[in-house]
Amino acid sequence: MEMILLITGIFAGIAVCMATLHALSQAILLQGRARWAYLVQVLAILLTMGLLLEREVGLARLSALPLLVISTWVFAVEHGWYRIFPALVQLFAVLLLAGYVALQ
Q: Which of 16, 88, 91, 93 could be bridged to 67 by S-S, CB 3.0 to 4.6 A?
């Protein structure tokens, strides 16, 4: 069971990293409302990941709720197949809120 959780965690980390890189590129390339949505999402992801890096799981769980709201906003702004990236961040935020992301 621990091996499955480890592999799932690795894939979740890769997915959030890809979503962060995509959001950063879109924050640089786009204009208007979409640029701000992506920029706020990048900052929220970096804040949450920084809190997890510092082993502040409680604060990271608290930052998951704004991350979920921001990712929903980005999902509404995005069009086409690129909606998968905000959806992956939403999934990460839900898992974090549910307590499945914990450090030992």
A: 93
